[in-house]
Write a structure and sequence with these properties.
heterodimer, A: alpha/beta, D-Maltodextrin-Binding Protein, domain 2, 11 strands, B: mainly alpha, globular, MetI-like (chain B), transmembrane helix (chain B), transport (chain B), Carbohydrate ABC transporter permease (chain B)
């Protein structure tokens, strides 16, 4: 009798445990390592308290490793991740491959119409949203107001490249270790080519004509690359060909750069008094344009959460995505860490919030920069592609990096600008022909 | 005169050896020092070597953010597991090649070594697909198998070199005394080769511990070892150098300690057979 009772009780316990385990859904979330994402990981108790049946597992990786890892998984239908952090480059390509689930059934209170129009467009295919933006960025000029004043130059809110070059020359004092301008030089499609492509856009250049022929032999590219090299050689820091975002951030925070043109997300870092020695003397301006050109670079990036078609828990994944990119999450961050820490660049309501405007002096310029972007027409010329500081085709990672290596070599003095452009033209056309874009 | 010349030569060699040693160790030292700095001090120019405000904050943040012990435990299981299984396969293989060589032995050894020259990325997608179909993605079993396979050529080669130094007559004597093959390997050969097996084991644990290509590509959350733990603190947008250094220090500390205490065996194993 006792043995029978024990057996029955044991069976019940096993049954109860099994059903509990079956009810528990585990979401594996692949994300990138940056301040906003780490903050989100710390605040997920708010989500799990409302969803006790969902457990969250985080895979945090450096951007390039993450990109390679999630691309490999989604392309092979590996099913390792339920939520992926991807950018504006991947979303249109992956959505067209049917690798992502459409986010067309988000809760009513999500308020999709509150998303910044440029970001929403960049994350949609045929007007269907495939990823929800967690934070977004464009590019802008960050400059030292004290150095500009000392040098007697004024940087307008909407500067031209001539304004930037004049200011860079005036602010440079190499004996004092101050360089007029700091720009990306490290090779890579998301490194120097993000900046150089945006700069070329603002000069009226385009990567390809309507027949997918490379355009590095055009006057616009020649002009943009020569001006980039001239600024860096004359007014830039030494060893700039190995400088990326972090290296320039470090230089700017230590007061060694007069101007830095890079992602708007940097504004939060350079005005943070805990890390930046120049926090109280930073001004902002929009990305420059070539005199008379109606194009301010078209730089747009949004780290966004998407649900891969291979996920075995799509409903739970969508619930998490909706929570993490909601207005409620922004409010939660503000309550826990202040408005300055709210993830920027995704929602109109954030920029209309007076408390955020007060806490983030860069808010208005960030919004202006993001609003100026049109990912459907990154160049003023006729083009066969969409994109921004990149061309939204799968081959761009390889092509962009190869071209970036040429321009970085030109910056290091290993080849001339003319040779770099010629090599870029040849290698890009060769790859485009191989990939079957050209007849 | 001769003594003076010999002393000066010794001094030169000693200074040179120290210089090489310090150069090799400097990145590790710098990482450890950076882990005790604030993020602002970590990027300060000029950098400060010792005179900064020492802080344990980065270690606290890393410990709060990541479950270090889970990564650590995965690293231990994967590196030790793959090495032990590798040894179980490699000891008989090396015995056969050392004591019963055939005309093809040399070729087989070279072929085994040649697999180490294959760029791993070349077989990444096939292996990923096999792992996906066998439900081995993000499992410790899968990683133990991969680590064992990629280190097997080194294990076989090291043991082969070691076994070649053992006189075959001893094994013959055991055979004449009636020892069967299994007993010959386990009770005669293995005890004599314990120093060689130990150094092989240590080296392979270190290689498996530090391996970062397969461990990053075949894991997600459950089986991720310390290499994935380090990768989670690297960032191209935002300064995490001090925290990255703290994570790296925590990841390399166990293997550094192991290496420190077993350096004699390691050096002996690596240089065995080099001088005759």
């Amino acid at each position: 009798m006792t043995r029978l009772t024990c057996t029955l009780l044991g069976a019940c316990a096993v049954g109860a445990l099994s059903s509990a385990a079956a009810a528990q859904t585990t979401l594996t979330i692949a994300t990138v390592n940056n301040g906003d994402m780490i903050r989100m990981q710390g605040l997920t108790e708010d989500f799990t308290a409302d969803h006790p049946d969902i457990e969250l597992e985080w895979v945090t990786l450096e951007e390039n490793v993450l990109r390679q890892r999630v691309t490999q998984d989604i392309a092979t239908n590996g099913g390792q991740f339920d939520v992926m952090t991807i950018g504006t480059y991947e979303v249109p390509i992956w959505a067209n491959q049917d690798w992502l689930l459409a986010l067309d059934d988000l809760p009513e209170d999500y308020d999709v119409d509150d998303l910044l129009p440029s970001v929403r467009t960049a994350l949609s295919v045929d007007d269907t949203l495939y990823a929800a933006p967690f934070y977004g960025e464009s590019a802008m000029v960050m400059y030292r107001t004290d150095l500009a004043e000392e040098a007697g130059v004024e940087i307008p809110d909407q500067p031209t490249w001539d304004d930037i070059m004049t200011a860079a020359e005036a602010m440079t004092d190499q004996d004092a270790g101050i360089y007029g301008i700091c720009l990306r030089g490290k090779p890579g499609w998301g490194e120097n080519m993000a900046f150089i492509t945006a700069m070329a856009n603002s000069y009226g250049a385009r990567w390809f004509d309507t027949d997918w022929q490379a355009q590095f032999d055009s006057e616009e590219w020649t002009s943009a690359v020569n001006d980039y090299l001239m600024m860096m050689n004359e007014y830039g820091p030494p060893g700039a060909s190995s400088n990326g975002f972090n290296e320039n951030l470090s230089l700017f925070q230590q007061g060694k750069c007069g101007m830095w043109i890079d992602a708007t997300v940097a504004a939060g870092f350079v005005t943070d008094p805990d890390d930046s020695t120049v926090a109280d003397s930073v001004g902002f301006a929009q990305f420059p344009n070539k005199d008379g050109m109606d194009n301010r670079g078209n730089w747009l990036w949004a780290w966004s959460l998407a649900v891969p078609a291979s996920s075995d828990a799509p409903e739970a994944a969508k619930e998490f995505v909706a929570w993490a990119t909601s207005q409620g999450y922004t409010q939660l961050v503000a309550e826990e860490e202040g408005w300055r820490a709210a993830p920027p660049g995704t929602r109109t309501s954030l920029y209309e919030n007076p408390e955020y405007q007060e806490a983030a002096p860069f808010a208005e310029m960030t919004l202006n920069s993001m609003s100026a972007v049109d990912t459907s027409a990154p160049s003023v010329q006729e083009i066969p592609y969409t994109g921004a500081q990149f061309v939204a085709i799968p081959e761009f990672q390889g092509i962009g990096t190869a071209v970036g290596q040429q321009f970085s070599a030109a910056l290091a003095g290993q080849v001339t600008a003319e040779q770099a452009l010629q090599n870029a033209q040849t290698s890009t056309n060769r790859e485009m022909e191989r990939a079957g874009y050209q007849d | 005169m001769a003594r003076a010349s010999s002393t000066s030569r010794k001094l030169t060699v000693t200074v040179f050896a120290w210089l090489v040693g310090l150069t090799l160790f400097f990145p590790v030292l710098w990482t450890v020092l950076t882990s005790f700095k604030t993020e602002a001090e970590a990027i300060a120019d000029p950098p400060s070597l010792l005179f900064f405000n020492w802080t344990l904050e980065n270690y606290v943040v890393v410990q709060e953010r990541s479950n270090y012990f889970r990564y650590f435990w995965n690293s231990v299981l994967i590196s030790v597991g793959s090495t032990v299984i590798g040894l179980i396969i490699a000891v008989p293989a090396a015995w056969a090649m050392a004591f019963v060589p055939s005309p093809r032995t040399r070729g087989i050894l070279m072929w085994m070594l040649s697999t180490k020259m294959l760029p791993p990325v070349g077989v990444l997608i096939p292996i990923y697909l096999i792992f996906r179909d066998m439900n081995l993605l993000d499992t410790r079993t899968g990683l133990i198998i991969v680590m064992m396979l990629i280190n097997l050529p080194i294990i076989v080669w090291m043991l082969y070199t070691y076994f070649k130094e053992i006189p075959g007559e001893i094994l013959e004597a055991a055979r004449m005394d009636g020892a069967q093959l299994r007993n010959e390997i386990i009770h005669v050969l293995t005890p004599m080769a314990i120093p060689g097996i130990a150094s092989t084991m240590l080296l392979n644990v270190i290689l498996a511990w530090n391996e970062a290509f397969w461990t990053l590509n075949l894991t997600a959350a459950k089986a991720a070892p310390l290499t994935a733990f380090i990768a989670s603190y690297s960032s191209p947008e935002g300064l995490f150098y001090a925290k990255l250094s703290a994570a790296s220090t925590m990841a390399i500390a166990p293997i550094l300690i192991l290496g420190w205490f077993s350096q004699k065996q390691l050096v002996r194993g690596l240089t065995f057979g080099a001088v005759k």
